[in-house]
Amino acid sequence: MLHAHSVFRTKYQHRVFDGRHLARMEQIMRDVCADFECELVEFNGDTNHVHLLVNFPPKVALSRLANSLKGLSSRRMRQEFPDLVTHYWRAQRLWSGSYFAGSVGGAPISILRQYIEQQNHPL
């Protein structure tokens, strides 16, 4: 099992999310991970980004997982929260085209979970 810490930023770093958005986003991302036979160990975020700690088997390409997480969450959030449409300016995308994904093989998982738990979470 491999571990990765990923960060997805909103397009143009717009401040988009509140607590209800992040709660739904977490569930969507858990479902996508389950489809890939992965585990979303930790999730947290702020108004313009989310952090994920994912365990995944070697047969899963991290880039493919990240693209599915971003694509599906963008579509579902747009469908379920029409108020977000103002943040889907031009290209109809919620997320920035890039993302951070770092291997966490050297750090204890408990430390990474603690780091993600301590990220800002709007009310």
Automatic annotation (TrEMBL):
GO terms for molecular function: DNA binding; transposase activity. It comes from the Bacteria. SMART domains: Y1_Tnp. Residues 2-119 form the Transposase IS200-like domain. Pfam families: Y1_Tnp (PF01797). One of its GO terms (biological process) is DNA transposition. This is Transposase IS200-like domain-containing protein.
